[in-house]
Amino acid sequence: MTVQRNSSENLRSRRVWATWRRPWAAIAIALIMVVGIVACGGGGSITGQSVAGDVTAQAPAEGGAPVAAGSTLDDILSRGTVKVAVPQDSSPFGFVGADMQPQGYDVDMAGLLAEALEVDLELVPVTSTNRIPYLQTNRVDVVISSLGATPERAKSIYFSRPYAPFFSGIYGAADVDVSSYDDLSGYTVGVTQGAIEDLDLSSRGPENMTIQRYDDNSTTVSALLAGQVDLIAVGNTIAAQVIQENPGRNLQNKFVIRNSPCYIGVRRGDLDMLQWLNVFVTNKRLDGSLDELSEKWFGEPLELPNV
């Protein structure tokens, strides 16, 4: 492709010089060639800026030099190692186990990624505040750290297809027949006061549903276990812990009330890596690997939107 483009540009240059004999023609020729090259190398992005042909990404948010974009996949395959940012204190996504080793949904996901790439895995513990800067400053190749996608974040990085569930839902015993807001009629639902779940229930629940508010999540959960409420509205990570600690109660998710799944983060402009990750996530959804992770860490079937 490069040889053909250069040949075309040289031919175009000779033709123009054959017609333009004045001294200032060189300036016009240079401008025409620059425009042609830019037009061939342009690319689109979610922010409306040309990034597909860029050789550098945005400058890091916390300082430092710009990092190379578009070459991460080749770099990983060449070095034989993938550096993945994972949470260190966000159970069940990522935390340090009793054996002092990292574990969790995101840690297992990173393992699947390295296996699919056929390279070694290097886990890099991060927090919610430094995970994006670590990506932008090239300290990691990708971020798998319970990362939600927002329009503001999308100005700085790319997001893969969703790979992990993160949502608020209605939870209760298996014998409670509830699958929608309308079905909550006549039931008492516990919720943490002021939480997102409280706002959703207040605005969307039926009139004859009773909302019982508590000061914190642990009290809300205790109310369900003590039989003070029929159901509770909580986040799936909280519910996962309750389900695992109380296997005999046969608790389950009834329906999702607010969905905010997790995505893998990639440097902006790194389209090769993004494309590979989307294929990877799709493959792991189809072969049941993500279902197994969801059952293992959340105690329930995978719940992801079709986006």
Write the layout of secondary structure elements.
Blueprint: H1 2-19, H2 25-41, H3 72-79, E1 81-87, E2 89-90, E3 94-96, E4 102-103, H4 105-117, E5 120-126, H5 131-136, E6 142-147, E7 157-164, E8 167-173, E9 188-192, H6 196-204, E10 210-214, H7 217-225, E11 231-235, H8 236-245, E12 251-259, E13 262-267, H9 271-286, H10 289-298
Helix pairs in contact: 1-2
Spatial shape = elongated
Alpha-carbon distance between the termini? Answer: 34 Å
User: Can you identify the CATH superfamily of the largest domain?
Assistant: Periplasmic binding protein-like II
DSSP strand tally: 13
Q: Approximately how much beta-strand content do the residues carry?
A: 15-25%
Largest sheet geometry: 5 strands, mixed
Radius of gyration: 26 Å
Mean pLDDT: 81
Alpha-beta classification: alpha/beta
Just give the CATH class of the largest domain.
Alpha Beta
Give the low-confidence spans.
1-70
Per DSSP, the total helix count is 10
Corresponding CATH architecture of the largest domain: 3-Layer(aba) Sandwich
Main β-sheet, spatial strand arrangement: 5-1-6-13-7
Strand-and-helix sequence, N→C?
Answer: HHHEEEEHEHEEEEHEHEHEEHH
Query: At the third CATH level, what is the topology name of the largest domain?
Result: D-Maltodextrin-Binding Protein, domain 2
Structure description:
With 307 residues, the protein is an alpha/beta fold. The protein contains ten helices and 13 strands. The strands form three sheets. A five-stranded mixed beta sheet has the order 5-1-6-13-7. Strand 2 and strand 3 form a beta hairpin. It is elongated, with a radius of gyration of 26 Å. The model is unreliable at 1-70 (pLDDT under 50).
